[in-house]
Amino acid sequence: MKRMLFNATHQEELRVAIVDGQKLIDLDIETAGREQRKGNIYKGVITRIEPGLEACFVSYGEERHGFLPFKEIARGFFKDGVDVRSARIQDAVYEGQELIVQVEKEERGNKGAALTTFVSLAGRYLVLMPNNPRGGGVSRRVEGEERQELREAMDQLNVPQGMSIIARTAGIGRSVEELQWDLSYLLQLWTAIDTAAKDNAAPILIYLESSLVIRAIRDYFSPEIGEILIDTEEIAEQATAFMSVVMPDNVQRVKVYKDDIPLFSRFQIEHQIETAYARTVQLPSGGAVVIDHTEALVAVDVNSARSTRGADIEETAMRTNLEAADEVARQLRLRDLGGLIVIDFIDMEDNKNQRLVEQRLRDALHFDRARVQMGKISRFGLTELSRQRLRPALNEGSHITCPRCNGTGVIRDAESSALHVLRLLQEEAMKENTAALHAQVPVDVATFLLNEKRADITKIESRLKVNLVLIPNKNLETPHHHIERLRHDDPRLDNAVTSFQLVEAPETDISYPGSKESESKPRQEAIVKSITHAQPAPVVAATAPTAAGTAVTGPTAAQ
């Protein structure tokens, strides 16, 4: 049986997991110290237009300006009299213009958030696009007769002119009354957003996307999920309140978990979550999948390692690749890896085996909510994927760049670092008017320089008439160092300070990029925080009522 598990015992982190039995299928984590802006709606102001990029930058109330491509600007924001078909961005909009924008992609690294003026509001069954009349349709995951039935039901809805709707997978089998109820709520929400935008000056946060509790139930819940287990009363009340309005016929599935054994430990998924943070993921046959991040793409390498199940090399490679296809698709969901992904499968000579692996990967990716484009296995054994990023990657909210290696994963050894420092000292000593050089270096680097390279240091001093002072600093680690150049008129040359007194103290107020301390700016308060439904969702088929909020102990949860 599939279950949705909410773990909220620590206020710093809310975790939501979808499990099938004791296998982790999907995972979402919301960290209190990291604000997620995707889906938020702002009233922004254009600060700069870049014709060469065919885009503009928009101030929307955050520290870094957002990036708005010309193709993402709705015609309603164009200047009067502009020819829509041949317009250029500098002719269509102007600096200082105010407009409603929605965050489409989160800030990543040095890139600002990607914005769009084509707002989309997600409901339980529908997605409303209030300023995009040509964006309607049915979710790509709905196929066959269900797709046709859903289209026929959508044709009976009262959609205002100039707007469009997309039917979600949750809309399958729903009546026209249920779809119209969801549409009425979204129209009510858009009216509140539009009114707030007209009454307030930019930049300002208009609408805040729903909390993870509401968002997870809205987006992930399906009839296949038999229980929603929550380990805190407060979160259970939020879930029950939401479901009693949106899905009243399923509210009995919300249950409070009250066993002494932690919820995620009960279903044995804690170690599965840890694999989503690991570089190497083991496969059942003994093989392994290695996942590395680069600036351009995510590289996935499949290794046979200890796998020897097959009768020969070809069969071993095929079996390992089939296992890897399932695991890679799962890891993409758990980690929410987006962008370009390249998988290096183990080489297989038989084309039939290659097609089997391709089909297994394609089938495994079918369960992914993100939009995925997949290529075939190339003659080098590589498969290219392009995956839509639904939310920030799992490690972005909990990891920071290593301050020692700067994210490369490797550092110079002591000998190489010492030679690097020696060359820098020689360069600095050759500069005009140099009287002395003070080099703060790690202890092991200083040891190497003062012993193995003592003659070279003496030679530099005598040839260039420069005093070199090496200061072993226990607060430094390779490859870090600090070289200070003193000129002949520097007053510090006259001060009789011994070298060990020159040791610099460690910095105590370091704030690494992405750390919680670096986010000092207070969060914006949304004008439109929540809109309640005018009435509960219509219940088509009555179900036997059971009390919501039923306490669940360990044995019941483990069924």
Stretches where pLDDT is under 50 for at least 5 consecutive residues are 509-519, 542-559
Distance between the termini: 8 Å
Number of domains: 4
The largest sheet is: 6 strands, mixed
The class by helix and strand makeup works out as: alpha+beta
- CA-based gyration radius: 30 Å
Oligomer: single chain
What would you say about this model in short?
With 559 residues, the protein is an alpha+beta fold.
Write the layout of secondary structure elements.
Blueprint lengths: L1 E9 L2 E8 L2 E9 L9 E10 L4 E5 L6 E4 L19 H4 L5 E8 L8 E3 L4 E2 L3 E4 L7 E2 L5 H12 L8 E4 L8 H24 L4 E4 L4 H9 L4 E6 L2 H14 L7 E4 L5 H4 L3 H6 L4 E3 L5 E6 L4 E6 L9 H23 L3 E6 L6 H15 L6 E3 L7 E6 L26 H16 L4 E8 L1 H9 L2 H11 L2 E6 L9 E6 L62 E3 L1 H4 L2
Would you write up a description of this structure?
By secondary structure, the chain is of the alpha+beta class. Helices cover 27% and strands 24% of the residues. It has 13 helices and 25 strands. The chain is globular. The relative contact order is 0.11.
